[in-house]
Structure to design on (152 residues):
């Protein structure tokens, strides 16, 4: 699986406008919604927020991967946002986040969802790539960094 198979350039936002977890999740859902990637914004937002209430998706190392499953999407969709100021996300390491990666999948695409999470995790383990993504000055730059890693 290539991340660029599910990530559209228009679904990358640098910088994020939101300053707290709920605002950023809503901003990311709206970013994907503006691209027509799902049928029901409220259903998608509810799925992601419900998952977030179960346990924070702030996984540490300045990264959060809010995600959810909803019948409002036909296929796995993804968005990435970069915060210029760190955002409190109730992360497991108790540190704020700067990279937010949103994943939404239909309930019957668990395998694709898990593959995407694994691919994102591997990408973020590359410290040089992660730092370049955090420091990117534009959405195009973030997308190109991911695209370059995908092609390796």
């Amino acid at each position: 699986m290539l991340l660029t198979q599910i990530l559209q350039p228009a679904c990358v936002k640098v910088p994020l406008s939101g300053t707290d977890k709920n605002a950023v999740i809503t901003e990311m859902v709206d970013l994907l919604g503006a691209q027509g990637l799902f049928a029901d914004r409220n259903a998608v937002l509810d799925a992601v927020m419900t998952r977030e209430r179960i346990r924070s998706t702030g996984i540490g190392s300045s990264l959060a991967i809010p995600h959810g499953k909803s019948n409002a999407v036909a296929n796995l969709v993804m968005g990435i946002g970069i915060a210029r100021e760190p955002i409190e996300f109730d992360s497991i390491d108790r540190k704020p986040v700067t990279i937010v990666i949103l994943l939404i999948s239909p309930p019957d695409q668990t395998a694709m969802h898990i593959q995407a999470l694994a691919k994102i995790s591997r990408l973020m383990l590359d410290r040089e790539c992660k730092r370049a993504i955090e420091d990117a000055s534009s959405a195009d730059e973030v997308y190109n960094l991911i695209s370059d890693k995908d092609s390796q």
Notes: The two ends are 12 Å apart (CA to CA). The chain is about 45% helix and 25% strand. The beta strands are 7-13, 58-60, 63-64, 67-69, 77-87, 97-105. Residues 34 and 102 are 14 Å apart (CA to CA).
